[in-house]
Write a structure and sequence with these properties.
Elements: E1 3-13, H1 16-26, E2 30-32, E3 41-46, E4 49-56, E5 67-74, H2 77-86, E6 92-96, E7 101-107, E8 113-119
Parallel strand pairs: 1-4, 5-8
Antiparallel strand pairs: 1-5, 2-3, 3-4, 6-7, 7-8
Length: about 130
């Protein structure tokens, strides 16, 4: 399962508008299209890639991480799922039809959430989908 690239960083924020201004005005990203998720947020683009995903959500106190997850793009979904099973790593597999993606969600030993995204045309047993 070759990883192809770091896809995006997802950040929880209780200050969505201020975060948008910071990442556009200070960092230089541009506000762009986002799928119609059931929760509020914004996607900020670096060129033609949505690099920072902001999610409007209450966050923990000071000093607590607001990074919800980071994501890789990859190829070889069936091999990756087989590896996770052989290593007994829990995962959740979902489909995001608007983006033509299959997402495998896992956590590292410290509990950091990681999304590994595959093209929707990668073959997988339908019983794997949640």
């Amino acid at each position: 399962m070759p990883l192809c690239w770091l896809d995006h960083v997802n950040i929880r924020t209780a200050n969505l508008e201020a975060m948008i201004r910071f990442y556009t005005d200070v960092v230089g990203l541009t506000l762009g299209p986002r799928p119609a998720f059931s929760f509020a947020g914004s996607w900020l683009y670096c060129g033609d890639k949505a690099a920072v995903h902001l999610v409007a959500r209450e966050v923990e106190g000071p000093g607590q991480s607001r990074i919800d997850h980071f994501a890789f793009r990859a190829q070889g979904l069936s091999d990756f799922l087989a590896r996770l099973k052989s290593l007994q790593v829990p995962y959740r597999l979902t489909v995001v039809p608007q983006l033509q993606l299959r997402q495998v969600n896992i956590a590292d030993p410290d509990g950091n959430r990681i999304e590994v995204a595959f093209a929707a045309n990668e073959v997988v047993d339908p019983s794997e989908l949640s």
